[in-house]
Design a protein that fits this description.
Length: 307
């Protein structure tokens, strides 16, 4: 019965850490990065608060049932009537499923806490790409591991999009590496601004970026990716190509990344500045016109690339 207190203390400690981290970021990093970290910090704190509140309510309901059962036991303790004992057995049987459900909810809450801890860890310097200020490969690997654990245990879906800046080598060769770094920072900022607080945006390597989207199916991730492609094109700086894949129970982090990479390769081979997706059966083009469809609100139910 001490779980709500533990979770609440975790939430308070997290908020305290994030407030302190916010001040540290303000002093050392630029305003954009500070804004991104504060936005994500608020999301992590909110998630922890929701978990604590949900467990507290579930425990309160279950404790009320236990109290009634105890009173019932006391009332018939000195009685010998067979009917009374049969009724007690029926009540005990009725309590069994809520008890098992609560145990499952507590287990799920601990997994959610671990996931939020993983999000919290992305604030540290060892999990941040120094050039762009977004998450690095280490943070991506940890997020994928956590996401696959939730998929295996609770069938919680998630999808992944991999983006590559088109003709980036030409930018470096013609305009110089300083300009190339500015382009990388601009694309990272675009990705970060267009994602939910619960999504992870990471620099995968070179000019490649990966976005992990919890509670999102292949359709939703495809619509999001087309939105990113269109926004990059509209910016006039560069265009991007994207590959999308949704995690399955047969996947692991490496196979999921490989499937998204195969879709990305197909998009670039088809002419760049487009989105392809890997259905698990084949790789297909995402037709731009279909991106007019609204993104499903799943959160409430949510080969080397060519240069």
């Amino acid at each position: 019965m001490y779980l709500p207190t533990i979770v609440a203390l975790a939430a308070v400690a997290t908020i305290g850490y994030l407030v302190g981290r916010r001040g540290h970021v303000s002093e050392e990093l630029n305003a954009d990065r500070a804004r991104r970290e504060l936005k994500r910090a608020q999301a992590v704190a909110s998630q922890l608060e929701e978990i604590a509140d949900r467990i507290r309510k579930n425990l309160a309901v279950h404790q009320s049932s236990i109290s009634k059962f105890k009173d019932r036991v006391s009332a018939i303790n000195s009685q010998e009537e067979k009917a009374a004992w049969c009724e007690l057995f029926r009540e005990a049987e009725n309590m069994l499923k809520p008890t098992l459900d609560l145990a499952a909810q507590i287990s799920c809450a601990y997994d959610e806490l671990r996931q939020q801890t993983s999000h919290l860890m992305t604030f540290t310097e060892t999990r941040t790409d120094p050039l762009t200020g977004i998450s690095n490969r280490k943070a991506l690997d940890e997020t994928l591991e956590s996401s696959f654990a939730l998929l295996a245990r609770y069938d919680q879906p998630f999808s992944l999009a991999m983006f590559d800046i088109d003709h980036f080598k030409q930018v470096n060769d013609v305009q110089g590496h300083v300009r190339g770094d500015q382009i990388l920072q601009a694309v990272a900022r675009l990705l970060d601004e267009e994602t939910r607080e619960t999504d992870l945006v990471a620099r995968y390597g070179g000019e490649e970026f990966v976005v992990v989207m919890p509670h999102t199916d292949l359709e939703g991730a495809s619509v999001y990716s087309e939105k990113i492609r269109a926004a990059a094109e509209k910016s006039g700086l560069v265009t991007v190509s994207g590959g999308v894949a949704s995690a399955s129970h047969q996947d692991d982090p490496q196979t999921l990344l490989s499937r998204a990479d195969a879709a990305l390769y197909a998009a670039k081979a088809a002419g760049r500045n487009r989105i392809h997706r890997n259905t698990g059966i084949n790789v297909e083009a995402w037709v731009a016109e279909t991106a007019e469809m609204p993104v499903p609100d799943c959160a409430d139910s949510n080969a080397a690339a060519v240069g």
